[in-house]
Amino acid sequence: MCPLQQEVEMEDVDDDDDDPLVDIDNCDKTNPLAVVEYIDDLYQFYKKAECTGCVPPNYMEQQHDINQRMRGILIDWLVEVHYKFELMEETLYLTINLIDRFLAVKQIARKKLQLVGVTAMLLACKYEEVSVPVIEDLVLISDKAYSRQEVLDMEKLMINTLQFNLSVPTPYVFMRRFLKAAQSNKKLELLSFFMIELCLVEYEMLRFPPSLLAAAAIFTAQCNLSGCKYWSKTSEWYTTYSEEQLMECSRMMVRFHQKAGTGKLTGVQRKYSTSKYGYAAKIEAPTFLLEA
């Protein structure tokens, strides 16, 4: 059981001098926007609620005209669309969540899959963005494969199928909190997001809950930058995951990192090979994590 679930006081934890448990909210106590009084309760709620945004990891078996490879191609393309439109990071994660939740319950013909993708991005933009792309831009980016009315019809179908539930904890929600626990710098942050965006394209990663994906991405990035396994007591406390619990997911991330830039799905690799994203994709994968 994790420390937070045991409901023990932070001061009661027996720390060693080399790895003390840090109160990451102490410096924000005078900042009302940090809601320090409620932040732990919020994340305990997110942890309990994250299953509502998850889908069966084998849902694609119920689809007759599309498969996981097509899903990967769609998401790889949406990563590029998201980058081109300069949208907020939250929007990408919600877009993919909406796609998976919709496809998990609705049969879709392959010729409509891209329409599902752009419509999911439209819905995510309406939820997250201040300025929403116009439908004509989404039609244009789809090479005019669909009409404005088709986008509107799909929007109605998706939002009703999902019962208007767009408020789900995505990996991004946990990334912000867990990066703070890791006392991250910009380099660690960019490398962590590179790791987790590689996972967004991979269908097999749907078996991991968003909070575990976020923690594993940060753990993998930390190991990469430090050159050894590293997971602090502070990170374990706030994520509620131990190093052992993260290893399976982390090793999969390393393998994705190794093959990034090869094959046809290179959208994430190209995005994180730019100066804006700190050339994070050009950092060598921490292959030592693959050792037993």
TrEMBL record:
GO BP term (any one): mitotic cell cycle phase transition
Record keyword Transmembrane helix present: no
GO molecular-function terms, A-Z: cyclin-dependent protein serine/threonine kinase regulator activity
Alphabetical list of InterPro entries matching this protein: Cyclin, Cyclin-like_dom, Cyclin-like_sf, Cyclin_A/B-like, Cyclin_C-dom, Cyclin_N, Cyclins_cyclin-box
Start and end residues of each stretch annotated as Disordered: 1-20
Family: Belongs to the cyclin family. Cyclin AB subfamily.
Name of the protein this chain belongs to: Cyclin N-terminal domain-containing protein
Species: Gossypium aridum (American cotton)
